[in-house]
Specification:
The protein has 8 helices and 14 strands. A 6-stranded mixed sheet has the order 5-4-3-2-1-14. Strands 6-7-8-9-12-13 form a 6-stranded mixed sheet, with helices on one face. A hairpin with a 2-residue loop joins β3 and β4.
C-alpha cells in the first residue's frame, strides 16, 4: 500500500483554509496512488491558538468541518486521517478521525496531553490501542506526544496495528523525537509509522518539520526537511512487516507475566 504524510505551515484561517489545503493534498495523494493520507495535528483549526479559539472552533462529531473532511475522502477515493477540536459531552478533545471513501473508519482522542498547551485547551482521551482496517491493513491512531511513550506504540502493536498514523505538532527544540524516537517506536514493534508534522511558527512555537514515514525496521522510507511543505509518499509491503517481526521478535518474546501491557 502507498501512504502519504503531509507537512506544511499551521492553519491560520480556520476550517475553510484547512479544507482547501486538505482537498489539494488529497487530490495529489490520490493521483499518486496513495490509499492513506495523514495530516498534522489539529489540522482543521490550528493547534496552539488558545483555549477560547479552540472552544469556538470545536464541533461535535457530525459538525461541518468533520463532514467536509469526510466528503473529501469520498471524492478522492482515499482514506484521510485529520485532526481537530471535538466537542463531546461539554468537553473539548484533541481528536483525530479517519475517513474512508465510504465514511468514518475510526476516531480517537489524544490520551497523553503535552504540557500547558494541551492541558489548557483539551480534556484527555480515555482510550489507547485504537485501530481500524483499510485496504487490507490494520492501522492504529495516535496523536503527537502519544507516540513518544513506548507503552502507547506497544499497545497499538498488540491491538494488531501494522501501521501507526500519527498527526503531530512537534516543535523545536524536540527534533530528536522525529529523528530518534519515532524510528525507535517502529523498530521496537515492527510497526510502520506515518508521522505528519507542521513546519514554521504558530503562537509561541516554531514547528520543526522532519515529518517521516518509517518502515517496520525503523528505517526512513521518506523524510521531509526541517522547513517548508512536503507530501511524503512511501510504499509498504505487508510481507516486510511480517518478516521484520519474525526476524526481530520483540512482540512474540515479551514476558506478559512481567508486564501488564495488554
Amino acid at each position: 500500500m502507498r501512504i502519504a504524510a503531509l507537512q506544511g505551515p499551521p492553519v491560520t484561517e480556520g476550517a475553510p483554509e484547512a479544507l482547501a489545503r486538505l482537498e489539494d493534498a488529497a487530490a495529489r495523494a490520490g493521483a499518486a496512488g496513495a490509499a492513506l493520507l495523514v495530516t498534522p495535528e489539529m489540522f482543521l483549526s490550528g493547534y496552539a491558538i488558545g483555549p477560547e479559539r479552540i472552544r469556538a472552533a470545536a464541533e461535535p462529531a457530525d459538525g461541518p468541518s468533520w463532514a467536509g473532511a469526510a466528503a473529501l475522502a469520498a471524492q478522492h477515493g482515499i482514506a484521510i486521517v485529520v485532526g481537530g477540536p471535538l466537542l463531546a459531552d461539554g468537553a473539548v478533545y484533541n481528536a483525530a478521525r479517519a475517513y474512508g471513501p465510504t465514511g468514518l473508519l475510526s476516531a480517537y482522542e489524544k490520551a497523553q496531553l503535552f504540557g500547558e498547551v494541551d492541558r489548557s485547551q483539551f480534556s484527555p482521551g480515555a482510550r489507547t490501542g485504537v485501530v481500524f482496517e483499510h485496504a487490507g491493513w490494520v492501522i492504529g491512531l495516535g496523536i503527537c506526544y502519544d507516540i513518544e511513550f513506548p507503552e502507547f506504540a506497544r499497545r497499538l502493536a498488540h491491538a494488531g496495528a501494522e501501521i501507526a498514523a500519527i498527526p503531530t505538532a512537534n516543535m523545536k527544540p524536540f527534533t530528536t523525537v522525529c529523528t530518534r524516537l519515532v524510528p525507535a517506536r517502529s523498530e521496537e514493534n515492527g510497526l510502520a509509522i506515518a508521522y505528519a508534522n507542521y513546519a514554521g511558527p504558530e503562537g509561541p512555537f516554531d514547528y520543526c518539520g522532519l515529518s517521516v514515514i518509517t518502515g517496520p525496521d525503523g528505517e526512513d522510507l521518506a523524510r521531509a526537511s526541517a522547513e517548508g511543505e512536503a507530501l511524503l509518499l512511501a510504499d509498504l509491503d505487508r510481507q516486510a512487516v511480517l518478516e521484520t517481526r519474525r526476524r526481530v521478535p520483540y512482540l512474540a518474546d515479551i514476558r506478559h507475566d512481567l508486564y501488564d501491557l495488554r
